[in-house]
Amino acid sequence: MELVFNDTVKAGTAEIYNKLKKSIPDLEWPVLAPYIFEINKIKKKNDFVILAHNYQTPDIFYGIADVVGDSLGLAIKGSKVKEKNILMCGVHFMAETAKIMSPEKKVYLPDMKAGCSLAESITAEDIRKLKKKYPNVPVVTYVNTSADVKSETDICCTSANAVKVVESLGVDEVIFLPDEYLAKYVSLNTNVKIISWKGKCEVHEKFSKKDVLEIKSRYKDLEVVSHPECPPDVIAASDFTGSTGSMINHVKNTKAKNIFLVTECSMSDNVQIENPNINFVKPCNLCPHMKKIELPKILDCLKNYNNEIKIDQDIAKNAKKAISRMIEVGR
């Protein structure tokens, strides 16, 4: 069926367009709107809930998503919805986490090649070798990892609760995986010795102290808000550092006229829509994996139930233990 921008589609997407019109060029809307209209119709018919990460583009984030947030928040909220099918607008490890948290539901990913440089930096075998090298040292693993890696982990963490999780173990040292920069951030905020890995997020590692200082020199009333996956010198030059959720909350409460969000570009777009009175300075770094998730692929997935996420039961069981233990610690 050919998708066309007719009066029915225009009327059915008018409210969405009104919210997005400052973020999406007029010429693009007639192309996007028919997909948004059809997706919102098909998802209800086929009993899907759509989860979208903060790094998704505004047409997905505001146009079709039922639940938005960070990767863990999406998985937890997804486990509580009534729909039997979950479509994850994010990357592969996020879809796996959603499946771990909702084993009775079917979870789908629009593009199975939507990976993550950080998640792909470490394997379950790598962790087994680390356990042999550092016997009896607990393993703390960032949620931005595969199900296989989580299954070899004592406890998971997010960027928001990493320090809290590490200190909850009551030990002198931990193996903290896989983000090297997040590990350094944690080590600065705890007395626990951190044994780290060399993984990095290809989006956040591209930012430099030079970028931050250059932007600061151009704007007087500017706050630099960074993610702990950024290099240490970027964090040191920032006014606030925190998880995606913390960054969003900080922006909502700031009195600054200009904000530089040191993170993925689409998040700046999405946060700006909710905070129209703030000028967002955007030296952009896009996540190539997140951008693999597009409206045509989403529609195809909803119609044909493509790309179902399947995880070995033992791996899923062990991974859920690590996630559940983290949830008990709290955010």
Which tags fit this structure?
alpha/beta, Rossmann fold, about 45% helix, about 325 residues, 4-stranded parallel β-sheet
**CATH superfamily (homologous) name of the largest domain:** NadA-like
Instruction: Give the % helix.
Output: 40-55%
Helix/strand/pairing category: alpha/beta
Query: What's the structural domain tally?
Result: 3
Architecture (CATH level 2) name of the largest domain: 3-Layer(aba) Sandwich
CATH topology of the largest domain: Rossmann fold
Total E-strand runs? 12
Question: What this model shows, in words?
Answer:
The protein is an alpha/beta fold. The chain folds into three domains: 7-116 and 290-304, Rossmann fold, CATH 3.40.50.10800; 119-201, NadA-like (Rossmann fold); 204-281, NadA-like (Rossmann fold, 3-Layer(aba) Sandwich). It is built from 16 helices and twelve strands. It has helices spanning 7-12, 14-20, 29-45, 58-61, 71-78, 92-101, 124-133, 147-151, 162-168, 180-187, 209-218, 232-236, 244-253, 265-274, 295-304, 313-329; strands at 48-53, 67-69, 85-89, 106-108, 139-142, 155-157, 173-177, 193-195, 222-226, 240-241, 258-262, 279-281. The strands form three sheets. The protein has a four-stranded parallel beta sheet with strand order 2-1-3-4, with helices on both faces. Strand 3 (85-89), helix 6 and strand 4 (106-108) form a beta-alpha-beta unit. Helix 3 runs parallel beside helix 15, helix 5 (71-78) packs parallel to helix 6 and helix 6 packs across helix 16 (313-329). The longest helix is centred in the first third of the chain and has 17 residues, at 29-45. It is globular, with a radius of gyration of 20 Å. The termini are far apart. The model has no long low-confidence stretch (mean pLDDT 95).
